Amino acid sequence: MRDFFYSPIPDIEKLKTIQDRVFGTHGKEIPGIDLCEDEQLPLLERLKVYYKDLPFDEEPREGKRYHLRNDIYYYLDAIFLYCMIRHFNPRRAVQFV
């Protein structure tokens, strides 16, 4: 769904009208937040090995609770969560609702 606040697909024309406010001229620095940019790409390389094992179908299927084509939890979020869990193998997970 384009131009919805959860949508990963932006409305490019709308974004062009507010690009100074969105991107600003402050550079990559966000005060108080370390993005660890030099660690992000190596982590992505390590995560991609799990992509081939994704257990998700694109469409709903009996016996499965999640499918990639839904309007609630987008496929990119599910893919990254799956890969992060496989990589870091946490002992427990907490879901806040």
General form: extended
Amino-to-carboxy terminus distance = 23 Å
What percent strand? under 5%
Tally of DSSP β-strands: 0
What number is the mean pLDDT?
Answer: 86
In DSSP terms (H or I, runs of 4 or more residues), the helix count works out at 4
Computed Rg: 17 Å
Main sheet overview: none
Overall structural class, as computed from helix and strand content, comes to: mainly alpha
Name the helicity range. Answer: 25-40%
Give the SSE string.
HHHH
Indicate the low-confidence ranges by residue numbers: none
Mind sketching the topology for me?
Layout: H1 12-17, H2 19-23, H3 37-47, H4 75-88
What does this structure look like?
- The chain is mostly helical and 97 residues long.
- 37% of the residues lie in helices and 0% in strands.
- It has a domain of 58 residues.
List keywords for this structure.
single chain; 97 residues; mainly alpha; 37% helix; extended
Condensed summary:
With 97 residues, the protein is mainly α.
